[in-house]
Amino acid sequence: MKVNGVDHPAPSDARRLLSDHLRHDLGLTGTHVGCEHGVCGCCTVLLDGAPVRSCLMLAVQAEGHEVTTVEGLARDDEPLHPVQQAFHECHGLQCGFCTPGFVMSVVGLLAQHPQPTSQQVEEGIAGNLCRCTGYASIRRAVNRAVELKGK
Amino acid sequence: MTTRWFGAPVQRVEDDRLLRGHGRFTDDIDEGALECCFVRSPYAHARITAIDVTAAREMPGVVAVYTAADLPFGDTDLPLLIPHPNLTHGRTQRCLASDVVRYSGEAVAFIVAESRAQAEDAADAVQVEYDPLPVVITPEAGAQAEHLVHDDVPGNVAAELVQEVGDVAAALKAAPHTMRRTFRFERGAAAPMEGRAVWARWDGREHKLLVYDSTQSPTSIRGGLAVLFGLRESDVEVVAPDVGGGFGPKIMLFYPDELLVPFAAMQLGRPVKWTEDRQEHFTAVNQERGQVHDVEWGFDDEGHILALDDDFIHDGGAYTPYGIILPIITAAQVPGPYRIPNYRVRFRDIYTNAIPTSPYRGAGRPHACFVMERVLDTVSDVTGVDRDEVRRRNFIQPDEFPYEVGVVWQDGNIVLYDSGNYPRLFERALEMLGPRPEGDNIGRGIAVYVEGTGVGPYEGAHVQVLVSGKVVAATGIPNQGQAHATVWAQIIADELGINVADVEVTSGDTRRLPWGVGTFASRSAVTAGNAMYVAARMVADKAKSIAADHLEADPEDLELVDGQVRVKGSPERGMPLAAVAVLSNPVRYAFGGGTEAATQFAAKPRPGPPLAVGEQPGLEATGYYSPPGSTWASGCHAAYVRLDPKTFRLEILKYVVVHDCGRVINPLVLQGQIEGGVAQGIGGAFYERLAYDADGQLRNASFMEFLIPYATEIPPIEIDHFETPSPLNPLGVKGAGEAGVIPVGAVLASAIEEAIGVPVTEMPQSPLKLYEAALATAKSGLSGIRRLKNPDSPDYPRVSPS
Fold this sequence. Notes:
The structure holds two protein chains of two kinds. By secondary structure, chain A is of the alpha+beta class.
């Protein structure tokens, strides 16, 4: 599978979850695990550009696909991705645990709807749980990301 | 004039690495660590008759399997953190149960293996035989004491405390009206997105134990581990790295893993890590909020409360490791912003066969606020004085501070409100709420609360100016998302005349500051914030003292501005802070810009040794702040809601908050705290419910069924702040972390009751519960699920006085 543009061999353990493979085999610990049953969305990554729960997939199922994690959005020497920048500007994160999942969901949302309606924004972030922010600042961040991407 | 950082909406300095996926949470730390899992009791109450781990020890990848018999501290009761004379029957669990288990989820065995999967495979091979015992699951059943949770605790009563201000019996007797109601609040779960986790490494050559722990109190963990393992405190270092939300349960210590992971690491000579899974979080992490209040109150025709008598039971769970702080807080907070001339409160802390309770954001306060506001609404119903006017008539007035409530606070002092302006909060909230929206089944709720914040004993801070001119600071308390690194930097930047970007803060790392208490009780801004101020002032004074010699000026005439120490009124006479940092060490340094800058300020000969008696090298200081008492924040929430009369779906049409936490350090951060708190309150009031069955099994121990709100359930929240500074601390700040959650249950109860005419005396509510209550209300002759357009209308249900 290709992860953030780099080819990686398949995991040897067939029961390894994609989330665990990313975190513990590839060291990409930006993808977080909050519930391991597909509800919280902390583990959201892009699979061929679309948001998926990496805790609900076996790593071997990602063979032949392209996976993008939060680390793949901007290199360390690059400015933040517009979605990341928007979360920063709008105080869209507190503890930061759910954040990578939200950021990946929003990247996926804006890829599908570059100018989302408020209803689409609501639906786009409604698959992720945040216990800190109460979501208001995340809504603001999505709208700000739309502005930043347009620039 | 330079920037004033305090009060500015400074964007967070901690965001960049968290957004790039470079946060460092405990489970992110690996270093080839062995992994672990627990065998936990499936019974809520049972006697263990046999444990056989032989098969598990033979499983592939298994390195060690521990039961109580394998632990040198297996017979040691875990600590009772906060003893109290009225906690006459305090009980704590053991690290691993070997005799009786008292809640489903209590740890029985601990397995260490090469991988988590192998540890879980081995857990299945552990054979434990149980002899089930009768289960006590609700606080009411606990109080009835048909069965005992602990054989040696009569009546299941861990503690009882009675307090009285005035003469309640006489006042009730003399009151024109009296009423009596039972109010019930169920348990809730904090459910931070990151569960708990512990990682430990023992370095035998260095004789050092290093522990990473997703805790709210690394300093306490360190002290406890040192004692238990017979180590010097300096041999144990505990770090709370990035912590993915706390909300209370992570202040509890010691959870069994916090002993077993370090113990296994020392025994096995390899790093060991345990990471909780979500189901474990539901069955093995402390919860809170279960209380049943039996309340009688007296009032006059004008709606003045004359007396309040609250007799409540608190669901302590199976053990009392956290003492009786929660019911003490509730008892103290029931009166809230209202003048209650005669107040009696009795509580009993009751054992049940459920997870122990300890603070969850709000900590005893949401229930207190719920009781008081429900009381006021019924006073309005009976007297016909409208709900707003009843509140106005009972508020403590702005000229009555400091105001003594007369009951005891969690720090042992009598509750003393330091400052506030409750009528102003209330009128502003009404103004923001505006007119009632058009339509049926709309209800309005409003609630006012106070919150004792910033409890002691103390926090500390270390601040150091490096020779680069950058500043590093550390505090013992950890951060779980409250932007400590940003707000501490704001406080320091003001005192040292530098930019926030030049301050780097480390939180919750005993290697950087070994003293401290913890992040809880809305206390960080008050205690650690003021400690930062104290330490930064000490550094500023030291900088002036050193620079004075070189600038040939009196320290009193110097100021710290734009990274310079300079003479007031003569900005050309100054030197960089970096140069002062170099000069602060008589040894000096060979490299660095600060060195070059300092050379023109060659040390002037002065009599005596280079460091005079009492002087210390380095431009640094460690300062502490210990509050004389709690500061009391306050707020008012109000809402309009609509309830679907068929499905009982809740729609929050408008939600406003007016909040007063004294001086605001960072309005962006504060807004986030309030918005998040309200969301958690909405979850706890209408969506999240811990569904225990009669056997003490939690039937919804997953996010599939324990319904934390998504964005779709949380409305926009309008917030306004005003500042009544606390007179108790130099910064004038009060705590804000828990504020958002406290009155939400009371607000929604009031609004729901008004919307559909169904009495609301319990939290949480849900569509099903309301449907059932509406049916019962309809049968009882009240209006029930038929709509009530307007609470002023004659068919609005009036509850008659008892």
